[in-house]
Design brief:
Length: 391
């Protein structure tokens, strides 16, 4: 995003120190997002639906560090006035990349919402690459449509002593529409997804507490065991009747054999009934474990999504508010304040936080990073050993 002009003259040492810190931020943004991209390319286990969206976010944030910040530092600190073509390129690219980063966060939130609301269909769709790619491309198209046509029509302008700014910066209604599409719509969308996930988590927790009631569990287990035993021992009862009818002339032997057979049958019934009860308990236990794991997963998604909304609001709300307030003034009468520049840099700081907030918090990415660094260490060790052997 472009900032307002500042005529404040800073000392050369102060400008160099600030340029170093800003350059360090740009390098950290590039490094963090480059690691995410490299890990996704190298590790085949990361080829999952949600990880593709993390990749899309890392690409947009990576180019924020490559293009947006390096071209803005000389304008802010060293009064560099770029040519019209460079100015237009920087403006369009900066707005485009920042908006794409925001919409990628919304897409990640929507993906988490789908994983909770439609878990079965979500698992079936996670391998449909063409749908995943279409969603990734749609984010970039929407990001361009928010600012691209307006900026191309209005054209970027610059005058002597002023920074590169878009032509619509003085029109408050255009800025209000941009803030609505760039900040309010994403925030409300993510808030809706988060509230829905929390509601599903509460509902699942309530149902799991009802299902784990001891009276209900004992009744269902006894009923299942009774039906199962009835089905298993119907053949044993028929065999007992046939054995008793086969020896009508030897009554005593028949009674003894019948008693022995009934004792054996009763013993077998007790053994199989105990096995049936143990299997039923194991089945109920595994079902409870699966439900508990699903509930924990949904809670984790809800918490991470709440952090996502909080960080995004913290980084983007101040700039959106300042932009609308400053648009009321004419370009020559705008108040000069350091707070605006702080809110301006907060947006780019969001691109630095994103790699740590999303991919680096997931176990799959953490494992991929560890494997990636282990491979690098092995390569360095093998090269050092080969050099020492040649020496």
């Amino acid at each position: 995003m472009s900032a307002t002009n500042s005529t404040t003259t800073l000392a050369l040492s102060t400008s160099i120190a600030l340029a170093f810190l800003m350059g360090l931020l740009a390098f950290a943004i590039m490094l963090g997002n480059a690691i995410v991209i490299l890990a996704f390319v190298v590790d085949k286990n990361l080829k999952h639906r949600s990880n593709y969206f993390f990749l899309n976010l890392a690409i947009s944030d990576f180019f924020v560090g490559v293009i947006s910040i390096p071209l803005y530092i000389p304008q802010l600190l060293f009064n560099w006035n770029p040519e019209n073509k460079i100015c237009a390129f920087w403006l369009i690219t900066d707005y485009f990349l920042c908006t794409a980063s925001v919409y990628n966060i919304v897409l990640i939130s929507y993906d988490r919402y789908q994983s909770v609301s439609n878990a079965v269909s979500y698992r079936a769709r996670h391998t449909e690459i063409w749908k995943i790619v279409s969603l990734m491309v749609a984010v970039w198209v929407l990001a361009f449509l928010v600012h691209g046509p307006v900026m191309i029509v209005a054209e970027a302008w610059k005058t002597k002593g002023r920074h590169c700014e878009p032509g619509f910066i003085s029109k408050w209604y255009v800025l209000a529409i941009m803030s609505f599409l760039e900040f309010l719509v994403p925030v409300f969308s993510m808030a809706y997804f988060n509230v829905y996930i929390y509601w599903r988590v509460w509902k699942r927790g309530h149902l799991s507490r009802l299902q784990s009631h001891p009276g209900l569990t004992a009744t269902s287990s006894s009923t299942f065991g009774h039906l199962f035993k009835c089905g298993l021992f119907s053949r044993a009862a028929l065999a007992e009747q046939k054995e008793a009818a086969a020896s009508p002339h030897v009554e005593r032997q028949g009674r003894k054999s019948s008693l022995l057979f009934s004792a054996r049958t009763q013993k077998n019934r007790d053994i199989i009934a105990s096995k049936t009860r143990s299997l039923s308990q194991r089945g109920n236990l595994s079902l409870c474990q699966r439900e508990h794991l699903e509930l924990l997963r949904a809670r984790k998604l809800a918490k991470s999504l709440a952090i996502l909304i909080g960080v995004f609001t913290f980084c983007w709300a101040p700039y959106s508010l300042f932009t609308i307030v400053l648009s009321i003034y004419s370009p020559d009468e705008r108040p000069k304040t350091v707070l605006y520049h702080i809110t301006f840099w907060l947006q780019w700081f969001n691109s630095f936080v994103n790699p740590f907030l999303y991919p680096l918090c997931h176990k799959r990415f953490q494992k991929a990073f560890s494997n990636l660094f282990c491979v690098k260490k092995r390569l360095i060790l093998s090269r050092s050993l080969s050099v020492s052997s040649h020496g």
